[in-house]
Amino acid sequence: MIAVASSSPLHSNSHLQRSSVSLTYTTATLTCAHPFISLLQKCSNTLQLQQIHSLMLKTGAFHNDPLLFTRLLFASCSFSDDPFSRRYALQILSLSPFRNTIVYNSAIRGFSLGSMPEECLLLYLEMLEEETFFPDLYSFPSLLKACSRISAFSEGTQLHGCAVKVEAVADPCVQNALIGMYSACGMIGDARLAFDKMPERTCVSWNCMIASYAEIGCWEDMKSLFWLMVEQSSLAPSSITLVRMITACTRSGDFNSGKRVHRYIEENHVVLSVHLGNALMNMYARFGEMETAHKLFDEMPESDVVSWTTLVSGYAGVGCLEHSRKLFGKMPNRNVVTWNAMIAGYILNGCFKEAAFLFGEMLALDVKPDKASIVSMLSACVQLGDLRMGRTLHAYVEKVRTNFPLELVNSLIEMYSKCGSMDPAEALFKRMEVKNEISWTLMVVGYVKCGEKEVALEIFNKMPHKDGVSWNALTSALAHCNYFSEALSLFHEMQRAEVSSNDLTLVSLLSACGRVGALELGKWIHAYVDRNNIVMDAHLASSLIDMYAKCGCIELSLEVFDDMPKKDVLTWTMMIQGLAMHGHGKHALNLFNQMMQEGVQPDGITFIGVLSACSHGGFVDEGRHYFNLMTQVYGISPKTEHYSCMVDLFGRCGLLSEVEDFMKNIPTNSNGEAIWGALLGACRIHGNVELAEYAMNHLLELDPSNSGAYVLLSNVYAKASQWADVVKVRNMMKGNGIQKMPGCSLIEVNGTVHEFFAGDISHPQSKEICLLLDEMEQQLESSNHLQEFDICTGYI
Hints:
Blueprint: H1 2-7, H2 13-18, H3 27-30, H4 34-42, H5 46-59, H6 61-64, H7 66-78, H8 83-94, H9 101-113, H10 118-129, H11 139-149, H12 153-165, H13 172-184, H14 188-196, H15 203-215, H16 219-232, H17 239-251, H18 255-267, H19 274-286, H20 290-299, H21 305-317, H22 321-330, H23 336-348, H24 352-364, H25 371-384, H26 387-400, H27 406-418, H28 422-431, H29 437-449, H30 453-462, H31 468-480, H32 484-496, H33 503-516, H34 519-531, H35 538-550, H36 554-563, H37 569-581, H38 585-597, H39 604-617, H40 620-633, H41 640-652, H42 656-664, H43 673-686, H44 689-702, H45 707-719, H46 723-735, E1 744-749, E2 752-757, H47 766-782
Antiparallel strand pairs: 1-2
């Protein structure tokens, strides 16, 4: 067959000249083997190999040089990526004039490095069966490497036994190959056992074992072994091992060990190669030490695009966007990763429009975006709520890509669903050949947020596999969208299905319990947290405090608060707001003073609770003091909520002229509905008709359909006995088509949440409930505690 190949037109000199390997040697030159070895080293495919083989046959070099034949055989086995190439390689071996162990080892090594490493093992078995070959020290490393590449653990252990039998296992190269094989097959314990049994460990052995730990992310074992190598052997780790060690410190969050490795590098005068310098820069950048990272950059003998990108990404990560952008502009070369880093930096810092502008610049310069670019920009669209940009990105992807990776499709679905456009999300979802739990969950949560909870629950029930993330995501979404009953029902299903709840779900459910007054379920969740030893972090504790306060159990809120070993501003704020809600104004203010004494910095939300406590308690002087403290000492700019608390405070105390003076100093952009609503409420209490009409006009300018404004003004007129004006207001509401939203109340009884709307008699016990309410009303009338009725609706 080989002789035929030499005369075949496929292997003629004309074809050889057209190949990528340049063969310009004369016949006299070809009698020497060395040019052929050079050509074989440059050879890149089977066609070129066959052409070189043809010339070797013509010149007779093939039969005169064992080394040349061995190189030819090695190359043919390395290209055995299809049945024809494999047969060609085996035919060269079968027609070999030199049948010895060296030749066989060359074939085994070639197969082990090729695209079909399993052929190495098949060849080994065939030769053993023919009893033409017996393995030696040079056979096992290649055979074990083939086992590593295809995770052939059973075959690898058999080779280990054979190596022991022929006493080859003591060779360091065989031992290193065993470590690599066991670790590649996921048997890291066996790899470490082989390492520990080595009588003498070379630098390659240490580096091989360290690399094995790095491959599977066993960072602590890797770090321990590294320091063992450094401290107990005279061997120095290679540059690659140092890079792996720094990467391990970075990924495991062990900054101290990373700095220790850096000291080792400096003390031992290790040359700072590009890869080692980049690893150190990346570590310091990840931990926010940008001054050191930049110093390393300046000290590196040479830098590459990765070095620059690390600086750009690092400065963006610590919020220094201006510096990051300047470095980006100075870069001598940029690749798509660099553009992605700058775009991601803008998105990380909330500069979504700047990210979109940079993406446009990237396209204008003909830099082709990759999957990461599109995914980042889709997240910016979500944050901006920019459906138009999202659709443009989708159209671009459809135009330039033939295949859609799962992550990219999921990002598109997330963009459409969070922008409230479920039709294109549904179309993408139906087109997907492969859907994972994330795909299903995005659809479910998207429909909940669009107000179609029935569709969401239907999709959820059709999910082929529901993981904990799916359950928790749907439960949290229902709670956030005020579908409290459905959220609590789903939580009960989770418990029956023995699905664990995460912190986010528990926080959402506690919020739902507070909103619907489900005290017993809230207590059960609290017990669930204790029973499962869930860490009581600030968010979870704050949610419990808020839930107990809203369910009327301020004492239990205080118990949770007092049991917290470490309190942050969120925990203090929730407790202050809870006390203010229950009318314990003095206690709330005392707690705020204690908070400041302990050095906890209050924020704007904390001051809302403090000012609310002053408002409900009628503490005018204290209110002025804390408002000035917030603005002048802590430098917090007042928001609409702060202004409305002050207006409510002055209004409750009848200081209406002071309210007018205070409101003149409120900026226009903070002059919201809550402020004018508070003023209108104060007018209702004190019967100031003229000021109520003034407040009403401003309130309707902001929101003409505000039914509460009409109701409050109607009550002001009723209190002043101006009945004609009451009728006028009611006629205005009818004429403008404005209806007061019916009040809604929820209460938990025996673990079931009952929901009531004003005027609704659909509850099966509505007759008994109305009779009890009538009895309560009579008792309130007899004790002169009956509050005013809403003139327009007839409800308290």
